[in-house]
Amino acid sequence: MESTEAALENPSSIISIPGWGYITVDQLDSSFEDDENDTVDPVFPSTLCGETFALSSSLKNHERLRHGNKRQRRDHSPQPGPA
């Protein structure tokens, strides 16, 4: 891979990517190395079925849609009504 100084001498080999800064054409071809210090993606398991989700909002939607809101369920036995 060429040095930063060499890349700056040839501006056509430098690319600006928003959010990433400046990279050289050689860096585009290089493979990304896994960093051992990378954080692990959070996993949110459902306490109702054990299915896991990457986002807590996805877990909440799943539990609401698939399992209903258990806290608000009541016994729906027939109530005495007007005769």
Automatic annotation (TrEMBL):
Q: Can you provide one Gene Ontology molecular function annotated for this UniProt record?
A: zinc ion binding
C2H2-type domain residues:
44-72
Q: Per the record's keyword annotation, is Ribonucleoprotein included, yes or no?
A: no
PROSITE patterns noted in UniProt: ZINC_FINGER_C2H2_2
- In Swiss-Prot or TrEMBL terms, this protein is called C2H2-type domain-containing protein
**What InterPro entries is this protein classified in?**
Znf_C2H2_type
> What organism does the UniProt record list as the source?
Araneus ventricosus (Orbweaver spider)
Segments carrying the region annotation (Disordered) are: 59-83
What keywords are annotated for this sequence in UniProt? Metal-binding, Zinc, Zinc-finger
Biased composition of type Basic residues is found at 63-74
